[in-house]
Write a structure and sequence with these properties.
Elements lengths: L1 H37 L13 H34 L13 H24 L4 H18 L3 H4 L1 H31 L1
Helix pairs in contact: 2-3, 2-6, 3-4, 4-6
Length: 184
């Protein structure tokens, strides 16, 4: 008789443990569903985000992309200055007149990677445009050293970079103004 009772007690403990686990799991699923449904953990605007680091990343993104656009404008100026200063029998691209243009181009590639990192840290969906910006910068670097036909696409890619970065900066500043006006 005692063996039977022990086995029934063991089954009872197992059943109670199983029921407790199912109730716990159901409450976890319900809590998880409630969090997903309410949008907790997502940042819709700068001011509704409770994470301080995300707000800093968004501010850094906004300032970095603005600095990048200004750098692209200076880059066009330096390219024009290099074209009109290049003299001699060699290729103009090999001339030291383009050294400032090359140097700023290298700085802008690094800056575009920083923009991408800030966009990823900002968690606002702008990382896709920042990634496209990095890709365009790398393509522009390789096209600049291509043949004369390939090199002709370098200023065209520069215009694409200017347009993309300008629209990214405009969107970042519009979102900032909208969040600031919504908070007041």
């Amino acid at each position: 008789m005692r063996g039977r009772f022990t086995s029934w007690t063991g089954i009872g403990v197992f059943v109670r443990a199983r029921i407790s686990f199912e109730v716990f799991a159901a409450s976890r699923r319900r809590a998880s569903w409630t969090l997903r449904r309410s949008g907790a953990g997502r940042c819709k605007t700068d001011l509704s985000c409770t994470l301080f680091g995300v707000a800093i990343a968004r501010s850094a993104y906004r300032l970095l992309i603005t600095l990048f656009v200004l750098g692209v404008v200076v880059q066009f100026y330096l390219a024009g200055a290099g074209v009109f200063r290049a003299h001699g029998p060699g290729k103009a691209v090999d001339s030291s007149a383009f050294d400032p243009h090359r140097t700023l181009g290298d700085v802008l590639i690094i800056l575009s990677v920083l923009v991408l990192l800030a966009a990823l840290a900002g968690r606002n969906g702008r990382w896709m445009f920042a990634f496209a910006l990095v890709v365009l910068m790398v393509v522009a670097l390789f096209v600049a050293h291509a043949s004369s036909w390939g090199g002709a696409f370098h200023p065209v890619i520069g215009l694409l970079i200017f347009g993309l970065s300008g629209s990214m900066a405009g969107a970042a500043w519009r979102a900032h103004r909208a969040a600031a006006s919504g908070a007041s």
